[in-house]
TrEMBL record:
Superkingdom as given in the UniProt entry: Bacteria
Reactions catalysed: 3-amino-2-oxopropyl phosphate + 1-deoxy-D-xylulose 5-phosphate = pyridoxine 5'-phosphate + phosphate + 2 H2O + H(+)
Active-site annotation: 48, 75, 199
Pathway: Cofactor biosynthesis; pyridoxine 5'-phosphate biosynthesis; pyridoxine 5'-phosphate from D-erythrose 4-phosphate: step 5/5
Enzyme Commission code(s) on record: 2.6.99.2
Subunit comment: Homooctamer; tetramer of dimers.
The protein, known as: Pyridoxine 5'-phosphate synthase
Binding residue positions for 1-deoxy-D-xylulose 5-phosphate: 14-15, 50, 55, 105
Record-linked SUPFAM superfamilies: Pyridoxine 5'-phosphate synthase
Entry keyword set: Cytoplasm, Pyridoxine biosynthesis, Transferase
Site (Transition state stabilizer): 156
Organism this protein belongs to: Dichotomicrobium thermohalophilum
Length: 257
C-alpha cells in the first residue's frame, strides 16, 4: 500500500467560463481564475473541453497552456476531435471522461471494460505524445481491473455517489460509498495505478476521502467556484487545501503509529 503524506489539489475552472458564457464577452476570465488558484496554493488546473463548448472553449485551452505556469489537466471525451486538440496543445495530463450532451454534469465513470476498443488508441496516442493519461471511473473492481490493463497510468475515482449521499444525510449510503472508495483505491494502488479522486466534493465531504492514503490528487471545481462568490477564490482554495492536508496528516499519522 502506498502511504503518501502529500496530496495535490487540481482546481477546475470550468464554471468561471460558464458564467462568462451566460452573456458573452470576456468576463469573468477563466485564465485569471487559474492564476488566482495558483497563488492560493493549487497544484494544477483542470478544464473540461466539451463537445458543445458549454463552458471552456478552445481558446481557453490555448491560453491556459501558454499563460499559466501550473500543469494543465484537460478533461475530455475519448473522441478523435478531442484527441487531436490534446495533441496540438500538449497539456500535462488528459483525463478521459464519459460525456453525453443531455447531462448537466458528468454522470458516473467510464465503462472501460466495454469501451476498450474505442479507448485504447486514444490512450496510446496521448501517452506517445508524453501526456499523462487518467481514466475517470467508478470505484468498481471490474472497471479498475479493466483500467489496469489499458495502459493509462492513472485512475480518477468518481466520488459523486458518496457526496450525493452526504447531501441527503443518508449515513448508511454515505458509509457504504466511502468504503467502496477505500477498497477501490487500495485495489487500484495494488494494481500499480496512481489514484486520484473527484466530483462533488465540498468542505464538508473532502476530509474522509483525503484520509484514504492511496489517493494522491483531487480535482475539485464547481463547489470552489460557487464558494468563491461569497469568500473569494483564493480563500476557497486555501481552505480546501487546509482541510485536505489536515485529514491526510491525521491519516498518515495513525497509519505510522
Amino acid at each position: 500500500m502506498s502511504i503518501r503524506s502529500d496530496i495535490r489539489l487540481g482546481v477546475n475552472i470550468d464554471h468561471v467560463a460558464t458564467i462568462r458564457n451566460a452573456r458573452g464577452g470576456v468576463h469573468p476570465d477563466p485564465v485569471r481564475a487559474a492564476r488566482l488558484a495558483a497563488e492560493a496554493g493549487a497544484d494544477g488546473i483542470t478544464a473540461h473541453l466539451r463537445e458543445d463548448r458549454r463552458h471552456i472553449c478552445d481558446d481557453d485551452i490555448a491560453r491556459l497552456k501558454c499563460e499559466t505556469d501550473l500543469p494543465l489537466n484537460l478533461e475530455m471525451a475519448a473522441t478523435n476531435e478531442m484527441r487531436d486538440i490534446a495533441l496540438r496543445h500538449l497539456p500535462h495530463a488528459c483525463c478521459l471522461v464519459p460525456e453525453r450532451r443531455a447531462e448537466l454534469t458528468t454522470e458516473g465513470g467510464l465503462d472501460v471494460a466495454t469501451q476498450r476498443t474505442a479507448l485504447e488508441p486514444v490512450v496510446d496516442s496521448l501517452r506517445q505524445a508524453g501526456i499523462r493519461v487518467s481514466l475517470f471511473i467508478d470505484a468498481d473492481p471490474h472497471q479498475i481491473e479493466a483500467a489496469s490493463t489499458l495502459g493509462a497510468p492513472v485512475v480518477e475515482l468518481h466520488t459523486g455517489a458518496y457526496c450525493d449521499a452526504a447531501i441527503k444525510s443518508d449515513q448508511r449510503a454515505r458509509d457504504a460509498e466511502l468504503e467502496r472508495l477505500r477498497e477501490g483505491a487500495r485495489m487500484a494502488d495494488t494494481s500499480g495505478l496512481e489514484v486520484h479522486a473527484g466530483h462533488g466534493l465540498t468542505f464538508d465531504t473532502v476530509a474522509p476521502i483525503a484520509e484514504i492514503p492511496e489517493i494522491v490528487e483531487f480535482n475539485i471545481g464547481h463547489f470552489l467556484i460557487g464558494e468563491a462568490i461569497f469568500s473569494g477564490l483564493d480563500s476557497a482554495v486555501r481552505r480546501m487545501r487546509a482541510l485536505m492536508q489536515k485529514a491526510r496528516a491525521g491519516a498518515t499519522g495513525s497509519l505510522s503509529a
